[in-house]
Amino acid sequence: MKYRQLGSTELHISEISFGTWAIGGSWGGTDDGSALKALSRAMEEGVNFFDTADVYGEGHSEELLAKATKGREDEIYIATKFCRAGDLLDPASYSYESVRAYCEASLKRLGRERIDLYQVHCPPTDILRSGEVFGALDRLREEGKIREYGVSVETVEEGFICLQHPNVKALQVIYNLFRQKPELELIPKAFGQGVGILVRLPLASGLLTGKFTEKSTFAPDDHRNFNRNGESFNVGETFAGIAFEMGVSLSKELSWIAEGRTNMASAALRYLLDNPHITCIIPGFRNVSQVEDNLRAANVPGYTRSELDKIHQFYEQEVHNYIRGPY
Q1: Which residues are catalytic?
Q2: Distance CA 19, CA 53 (A)
Q3: pLDDT by residue for the chain (327 residues), tens digit each?
Q4: What b/e sequence results for 19-40 when a residue is b if at least 16 CB atoms lie within 10 Å of its CB, and e otherwise?
Q5: Among candidates 103, 64, 17, 98, which has minimal Cα distance to 279?
Q6: What is the DSSP letter of 306?
Q7: DSSP string, 89-132
Q8: Residue 78, C-beta contacts closer than 8 angstroms, at least 6 positions apart
Q9: How far apart are CA 67 and CA 61, in angstroms?
Q10: Exposed, middle or buried: residue 72 (CB in 10 Å: 0-12, 13-18, 19+)?
Q11: How far apart are CA 142 and CA 139, in angstroms?
Q12: With contact defined as beta carbons under 8 Å apart, do 24 and 52 qualify?
């Protein structure tokens, strides 16, 4: 496992880390036993960073992380997120009192005295512009309840707003082969300012595994079913904002990237790891097999210049116009 510094912080985290949305809920059925075994396997392989949120299974993924990392709190870093358990549009949800209540609830579920990275969870753009939430986070940091803080953003514009606040130490962005816009300006600027980049949905909700067909179906409680067109939250969180059938077709056109790189998923993750300006990728998982599949990306060949040119041209000419939602 290779490790990268999280921006200008003292944290050095595994370049392949994991997100825990899938083991909390909203990705179909969950199994705690499988999830705990998968977390253990990831840590055996050197993974030292996990991303979660208070709304993943209404706090259940935080509780699973508490069990999996008990006794290893000083060596396994946890990032969690807040605000979506309340009224996203109400400025009061971002006051010091509210943020502290969210934080203390997460600390209790995590069984920890301090959160390593506390992130605002995709708030409205106007909330970021007002900046009040950053003052609340500064106070929590001074109190020792959080080590560092950052923001999970939906758009490049929101990322640039966050970069205006010097104590924001990490941005979490949707970035993958179908969603390349962040790599053009936002990611290099963040890197230059000492702000870490966590890459979520690196496989575009599974599209970039190449395993789906137009007839693939998903469980009623899987966001790939109930949020397919942005019915519940930003459509970009599901299939990178691309209509499912079109995404399947586009993934077939990209299947050539798997040549010499084990499989399409490993190749798609390798593309992101080749970017020296990101800190880590945080693919999801539900079992040991999925953890092991994602970790294979560390050992597959990188991309040649001609391959990268082909990928970027494909994005500009074939993909970009099909992305829906704020980007």
Answers
A1: 56
A2: 9
A3: 999 999 999 999 999 999 998 888 655 667 899 999 999 999 999 999 999 999 999 999 999 999 999 999 999 999 999 999 999 999 999 999 999 999 999 999 999 999 999 999 999 999 999 999 999 999 999 999 999 999 999 999 999 999 999 999 999 999 999 999 999 999 999 999 999 999 999 999 999 999 999 999 998 888 899 999 999 999 999 999 999 999 999 999 999 999 999 999 999 999 999 999 999 999 999 999 999 999 999 999 999 999 999 999 999 999 999 999 989
A4: bbbbbbbbbeebeeebbeebbe
A5: 17
A6: H
A7: T-GGGGSHHHHHHHHHHHHHHHT-S-EEEEEEES--HHHHHH-H
A8: 49, 50, 51, 52, 65, 69, 110, 112, 115, 116, 117
A9: 10
A10: exposed
A11: 5
A12: yes
Q: How is residue 73 written in tokens? A: 């709190």
Q: CB within 8 A of 171, min separation 6: which ones? A: 150, 151, 152, 153, 159, 162, 163, 186, 190, 195, 196, 197, 198
Q: Would you say how long the chain is, in residues?
A: 327
pTM of the model: 0.95
